[in-house]
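agent> call fold_tool(seq_1)
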Amino acid sequence: MNIEPGSRVKLWMMDEARFGLHTEMRRLWARKGRRPVVSRQIKYEWDYLYGSVDIVSGQAHFCQIPAVNQQWDRTYLQDLADTDTGAVHVVIRDQAGFHLRDGDGRLPANIRIVDLPPYSPELNPCEQLWDLIKDEIGNRVFETIEALREAMLPALRRWWSDAEAVLRLIGRSWLLDQANASRPTRESY
């Protein structure tokens, strides 16, 4: 991953999650001795939420996308790159098969990719974010994907508008320490 010395760099943790018309069943409070009743829908129509959080500034970026594949991955990364065209965006994410890899010619020019180790979702704070969003839309039935998207907007807006909340969610000092660590050069061996 080549980044020119002196470049402005934005460091993002990125992930995607599947949401759909299949009701997200979540725990809820009820009066003692009462059994809560929740409407449930089992409908296999899906939508995907791509999201990134900047581990330095606390900025959040989301896109609701109809599918996961390399074309949509590129579309999301282009949208992320367009948020600040003068910066190099380093995106740390898992190694899903539909993700473009660092050095792929289809990547936007100001995007660099760093892969997380396989089977390590606990390293990505976006995983916790998806759980919080599912809490917001849980135990509800949505007639259409558009209605689901509308219902998710207040939860997403909370993360867009509150950088401090994003930084509290990330809460991993080791992540920032590792991001700021110098990459060894051949001369330092």
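agent> call fold_tool(seq_2)
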Amino acid sequence: MATDTITLEIDGPIAIISNNRPDKHNAANDEMDTGLFDIIAELKTRPDIRCVIWRANGKSWSSGRDVNELGVRTEDIDNLSFIERGQQAFAQSMDLPMPIICALKGWVIGGSFERSLVADLRICAEGTRFMLPEVKHGVLTDTGGMARLFQIVGHGVTMDLVLTGRPMEAEEALRHGIVSRIVPADELEATAREMADGIAAAPAFTVKMARRNMGLIANGVVKDSIREEGSTQTLVFASEDYAEMKAARAEGREPKFRGR
């Protein structure tokens, strides 16, 4: 079930997911993740839902993972099991019978950006900015985001974003096809709803088959990437370079990486 940090509203044939940590720019934490995974599981049981809008309260869609929870474990579980459990739970969003529209605004960062990439449609408000800063934090871009981004923009732009962590403005995201529309901020919600209503008004089985066909074209590589990410991210967490990065930051010195 949803939590206070992420909510689900059903309005006729439209499901509305809302990120709800506005004071934190909707930075994701374990509670928010658990709520999202529960929402995805519930939507799998709802044949009456024809389209999903994923939006946010506050100024930003999501500023990524809450930095106060990076590397923090609230339970006795190994890194690989923890990563794979979350990845597999989110990967089920690709198997939903209804499409997901992400209505993006403000900052769209890191793992939250990657999750939006796995959705079917992305629109954004003017002034939205996108970023993949994981490498600067010593971890990998995951959640299938690198694979989907590669499908959309190709190798060069993907590695530019992944390796530099630079911000991407809304206009560039539109130019590369990461979003399909930019709208004024005060029109974002109405535009997403208009799109969702239009999808919901189309023949349900046809929409389901269109999403199935696109999934057959695109989702195999993304799911393969998600499975591999569990192993590579676990190796990163166990690496000497990751330990050195954390130690250097704690001690206020320059790290001395050894490439292992």
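agent> summarizing second result for user.
Strands lie at 6-11, 14-19, 51-56, 100-104, 107-109, 121-125, 129-131, 168-169, 181-183. The domain at 6-186 is CATH 3.90.226.10 (2-enoyl-CoA Hydratase; Chain A, domain 1).
agent> awaiting next instruction.
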